[in-house]
BON domain-containing protein (Comamonas testosteroni), 217 residues
Amino acid sequence: MKLKWTRVACAALTVAALGGALSGCVALVGGGAAVAGMSAVDRRTTGTQVEDQGIELRAGNRISEVMGDKARVSVTSYNRVVLLTGQAGNATDKVTIEKLVREQSTVRQVYNEIEVAPFTATLGQRSQDSLITTKVKASLVNAKDISSSAIKVVTENNVVYLMGIVTPRESKRAAEIARGVNDVSKVVRLFEVISEDELAAATSKAAPVVEDRSSMN
């Protein structure tokens, strides 16, 4: 059953309050994709969080420099794994954009989810994506049985992408929660999956990349 906005309103306020009190959950709207999830309580090392910010900035600037107005792309990095969303005019441009991102020496992996399609994202669509991201993040906080600070949420054209370092149970639970939010058309998990023992150990070493691209329609 879809979650009503009234059910997550209090959690949304909690997210907003945390965002002011800490580095918190910061919502960004870049090129149409709504992003949330940079948290002061994070399973990445502080150094990796800084690296992720640098990757997003450098890759975004490089794409703008080369592509100009031929593409509308958002770059999201989590634990040096990059998600590309948005639109490109043709398949060649889509491949070129991915190559530009892979030029960044600290990038470990790239998920290229750019659509080859006209740039049709309106202000209304971008606003809806931003609202969906806020509602998904609030629902994760409201759930209590999952660490919302370990998950980054990206929404593009009503498709929700979930990134983070999580256990198999958390991966499944997060997808279920996101799928229950109004207006979500699909949930795609791009998690790095670790065992419960690895989570308990809480080592500073980055988790190995385990592709989990299962979708929930």
Q: What stands out?
A: Helices lie at 5-21, 46-67, 91-102, 123-143, 168-179, 196-201. The radius of gyration is 16 Å. Residues 46-116 form a domain with the Histidine-containing Protein; Chain: A; fold (CATH 3.30.1340.30).
